[in-house]
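Reproducibility note. Readers wishing to regenerate the assembly model reported in the main text can use the exact inputs given here. Chain order matters: entities are listed in the order in which they were concatenated for prediction.
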Amino acid sequence: MSEETPPPHRRRPRYRGKNPRRFEDKYKEHAGDAETLAKVTASGKTPAGTHRSIMVAEILKVLAPKPGEIAVDCTLGYGGHARELLACLQPGGKLLGLDADPIELPKTEARLRALGYGPETFLTHRTNFAALPQALAAHGLAGADVLLADLGLSSMQIDDPTRGFSVKADGPLDMRLNPHRGEPASELLRRLNAEKLAVLLTENADEPHAATLSHALAARTYSTTMELAAAIRAALPRLKKEEADLCVRRVFQALRIVVNDEFAVLDALLRNLPACLRPGGRVAILTFHSGEDRRVKKTFEAGQRDGLYRAINDEVIRASAAERRDNPRSIPAKLRWAIRA
Ligand SMILES: C[S@@+](CC[C@H](N)C(=O)[O-])C[C@H]1O[C@@H](n2cnc3c(N)ncnc32)[C@H](O)[C@@H]1O
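Running the prediction on these inputs yields the following structure tokens for the assembly.
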């Protein structure tokens, strides 16, 4: 018999109640327990540490990926869309997945490698999609037949309080897609004056209380997400809870857009697109608020007028009623597409 002492018994994380509420306590979801994932998904929620891809069938229909083609997923995220695209590109095709996030990208790469996609079919590049031409060149690719951008944040990022995007759980007021670069939201707020803050709350989130909020919040120090959320609610004491919650969401959205320079990088992507698509190449872009959608719509319309795109969508495409019901994060999504001349 072995004389070795058995490893010490490790207790499961403790939490109050029947189901864990905190992101870090949802260990069954983080571990990918199939039964738990199915249960959480069926209840209309996104399991912790995962992401439910939006409008997958609609995106595959407009992108029409074929065996042997080259695809670029500019926003790899959890890899849900990429996985579907990769299956259609075989045999002989290749997908290059870009993401700015150095925390989630390696996990997604490992998940897709585990499905059997080696470096000959699946490449990754940690970069901002504003640098799409450089990413293509780095992998010796002349252009893409199929290109997807599913803008904004993944559920892994939104739900993880340590990333500073969550309006529900406390964490550092960060909001950077790449926490190693740039300025966190806490520093941005500290250096902004009320005038500038009012402009960005209006422009980035159509915030109706921009004037009041900007005076209350500008040039102040908030280290955590919940400190900022409490200050927003305190500045608007007459609002009902639901209205105040919406304000918190809008202020967080407005700050996140500035922290990650989201409009400037989207403009750069849209400018670079025609040169990065092969003749007949298809692009699909999924947006989540009007500031994004307006940019995509205008650029595609101008590209069609200038003969860069052979066709673009007439009507914006929305998630089906069933998907909106099953996954509330699909409700604001708008899909637009274009075909390179
Ligand atoms: C909505 S998620 C994509 C989810 C993915 N389509 C899926 O099915 O799993 C958006 C992803 O894009 C990344 N992202 C957002 N803006 C980016 C940018 N400018 N450059 C590169 N990646 C970006 C985020 O880090 C996030 O991982």
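We highlight two features of this model. The chain has a mean pLDDT of 93. The first helix runs from residue 27 to 30.
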